[in-house]
Amino acid sequence: MGLPGHRRTSSHKRRRAAHFALSATTINSCPKCEKPIRPHRACGFCGTYKGREVLSVSRKTARTAKRGKK
């Protein structure tokens, strides 16, 4: 059965928490439309990834326009 461990000092907590810092996100630009996108993701504006279209953006914009009408 587990027993209570030793007291965790404040310096030990801070040393452990030193690795919890957030890092800045990397932003690339879309090769087709030059909009900023995150790496390894399809562009939300033009729908391309690695030079080919993977998302139907026209269908997406029609759907959002239809929702806005209601």
Account of the protein in words:
- There is one protein chain.
- With 70 residues, this protein is an alpha+beta fold.
- The protein has a domain at 26-69.
- 30% of the residues lie in helices and 11% in strands.
- It has 2 helices and 4 strands, in the order αββββα.
- The termini are far apart.
- The relative contact order is 0.10.
- The mean pLDDT is 87.
Descriptive terms for the model:
70 residues, alpha+beta, two-stranded antiparallel ribbon, two-stranded antiparallel sheet, 2 helices, 4 strands
Helices and strands in order:
Elements: H1 10-17, E1 28-29, E2 36-37, E3 48-49, E4 52-53, H2 57-69
Antiparallel strand pairs: 1-2, 3-4
Question: Can you count the beta strands?
Answer: 4
Largest sheet: 2 strands, antiparallel
Low-confidence sequence ranges? none
Portion of residues in beta strands equals 5-15%
- Structural class from helices and strands? alpha+beta
Could you tell me how far the N terminus lies from the C terminus, measured between alpha carbons in angstroms? 61 Å
Provide a quick synopsis of the model:
With 70 residues, this protein is of the alpha+beta class.
